[in-house]
Amino acid sequence: MTKETTLQYQALQKGGPFALVSVPKPEPGPGEVSIRLKVIGLNPLDWKKLHIGEIVPSWPCVFGLDGAGIVEAVGHGVRDFKPGDEVFSLFGHELRASSFQEIAIVSEHFVGKRPENLTFEEAATLPICYLTAAASIYYALKIPLPFLPEGETSGPQPSTILVLGGSSGVGASAIQILRLALPTSVILTTSSPQHHEHLRSLGASEAFDRTSPNLVEDIKSHTPGGKGVEMIIDAVASAAKQTSIFEVLAEGGPKEYAEVFTGVKIEVPDGVKRNVAFGRNMFQMPGGKHAITALAELVRQGKYRVPLQIQNAGNGFEAIARGLEDLRKGVSGTKLVVTV
Ligand SMILES: NC(=O)c1ccc[n+]([C@@H]2O[C@H](COP(=O)([O-])OP(=O)(O)OC[C@H]3O[C@@H](n4cnc5c(N)ncnc54)[C@H](OP(=O)(O)O)[C@@H]3O)[C@@H](O)[C@H]2O)c1
């Protein structure tokens, strides 16, 4: 009997090229779900792994953190999913769990049923940006998330908070999660002006041109008494170049800075508390293993929207290489996906 095989889109070495390679079809272990990918979401970490070798254990390597597809098989003890279910999921870390392949195996906690009001393309763009945004709020700043079953119910409730990089996938997700967690707080953000209206529609109280020479004064003028904000979430390492941004933190306030890990070194002034966030930190938090199912429910209820516009970079695994090049050159308020 010939063993069943599946295709992997492997990066052969740092800088590429990629090759489509046939490998034995993997089987899910206990608590795992095997997913046949339909749509793959592309992320900056994918091109950073390819070109910088960031957290690549060895070559050849398979990347991919986001995707949506159909459950192929489930491992022992998995009750919430069955073959044929339409799902979206966090992928990545291990080769067998990465989404740049026909079939990937992930922990059941990474998977959610595709909300009926989302296409596969839309669902494939959500997980890592949502988890990272949630981790910056809940893990790094300790702000409780009211939509998480078994989550913390008490913690800081800042009345003013700034999201740097609101038009990034992580930033636009953070604005929405903050609005759910802090319904009456002042949530400010920075981006290019063409995204301001959209970011206000996601829940930002006000958005500011990130290149304004008066950015600090602009932001402070929108806080009570002009005092500044209590906390900052930096989704795009913008404080690395714009060091004066820390002046927006209110004197006498908690001066908390949540840094989404980007690989860029950021100098933080004395007196500012820095906490670094990774998306996967969510799974070590109380209630965190429900984060993806909670996301699916928020989407179903219309409380969480697809944060950015979506651009399809093409059909077939080969489109991934082109999409990653586009991502490396820089996108604005856009999430790239590939259909397979
Ligand atoms: N630690 C983790 O677990 C984790 C997980 C996911 C992502 N990340 C990292 O988080 C970062 C964001 O990822 P993403 O997918 O959200 O990125 P993205 O959507 O590709 O980010 C593009 C956006 O960044 C904005 N931007 C760039 N520089 C900016 C600045 N100085 N100030 C304000 N906005 C700026 C641009 O805004 P405009 O076009 O409006 O100017 C653009 O819309 C990446 O470095 C990624 O590697 C980390």
From TrEMBL:
UniProt keyword Oxidoreductase, yes or no: yes
Domain Enoyl reductase (ER): from-to ranges: 15-338
SUPFAM superfamilies reported in the protein's UniProt record: GroES-like, NAD(P)-binding Rossmann-fold domains
Family annotation (InterPro entries): ADH-like_C, ADH-like_N, ER, GroES-like_sf, NAD(P)-bd_dom_sf, Trans-enoyl_RdTase-like
Signal peptide extent: none
Molecular functions per Gene Ontology: oxidoreductase activity, acting on NAD(P)H
Presence of the UniProt keyword Oxidoreductase in the record: yes
Highest taxon of source: Eukaryota
Keywords, ordered alphabetically: Oxidoreductase
CDD domains recorded: enoyl_reductase_like
Protein family: Belongs to the zinc-containing alcohol dehydrogenase family.
Protein name: Enoyl reductase (ER) domain-containing protein
